Every structure is written in C-alpha cells, then in structure tokens.
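Slack export, channel: ligand-projects

TW: morning all. Re-posting the request from yesterday since it got buried. We need the structure predicted with the small molecule present, not the apo form. The ligand is zinc ion; the SMILES is in the block with the sequence. No rush, but it would help planning for next week.
GE: picking it up
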Amino acid sequence: MTKSNRPDYRKVFINDSLAIKFDIDESYSIIACEMKNNELHIRLKIKDEIFECGNCGKGEAKINEAKEMTWRHVNLNSRKTFVHMRVPIVKCRSCGKSECWTPGWASKNGLFTLEFERQIKRMGNSCSVTQIAEALGENETQIWRTLNKVI
Ligand SMILES: [Zn+2]
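GE: finished. pasting the full token output, ligand included:
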C-alpha cells in the first residue's frame, strides 16, 4: 500500500484514558474534544482565511461572517460523534456573491459528514430504513434523504 492510500489519521486525546483517531486534513485545527452524555463532540476550526469563490471561480472570497454548524459523524470509540465548526460565510471580491462555505468532508446543505453518509449507503444495501435509523439513532426522514442522494 502506498502512503497516499492510507488515511491521515490524527490521534486526539479526549482525556487521560480515552484517545480517538480522527481523519481530517491539515486545513483544520481540532480545538476541543469532549464527552457529553456519552456522546463525543469534536470542535474544529478552519485555518484558511481566503477561499476560492464557488460561483465565478475567479475571485478570492473573504470571510464576511460565520455560522455555527453541527454534523453527525460515524461513531468513534462506539460513541455517537458530532463535529462542530463555525463555517465562514464568504463574499467574493470579483462577482460579489456571498455563500456559506462547505467543508470538503461535509455534505452540502446536510447534517451529516460524508463519511457518515457513506456508512448509511453501505447499510442501505442490507438493512431497511427503519433498521438503519434505529441502529444509528437518527430519524428515518434523514436516512431516506441520504439514501436518495447521489454522493
Ligand atoms: Zn465570485
């Protein structure tokens, strides 16, 4: 296996006795990791301050403001896991369009990370929507939306 085929996991310590492996690239900092009600909450921060415009592709977009977002992620250490981040709302210097930027690991306009969506898709090959919803602790409507989406 070549190096590029291997996920670049980072070891994150929740406390002295619990560490998880979380796959995220170097554009992000993990600024907090905590357990709440037996759920794992990971808070990220994006390091970049300038973004490429998703509308015209020509201009640089600068952060105008930010929006607090939360995504459900695959279970880590058998715990329901959530990723939190303040997502920049960027404004293009060239075309002037403002948009909420989507991290590369998150579903567009979704509530799940792409990895969690792939897990739902895999489960969809052998389980009913009700079984998936029960196993993951999510509502059936969100499972249906994910299964009907092309990832
Ligand atoms: Zn633009």
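GE: first-pass observations. The chain is about 20% helix and 45% strand. The radius of gyration is 17 Å.
TW: perfect, thank you
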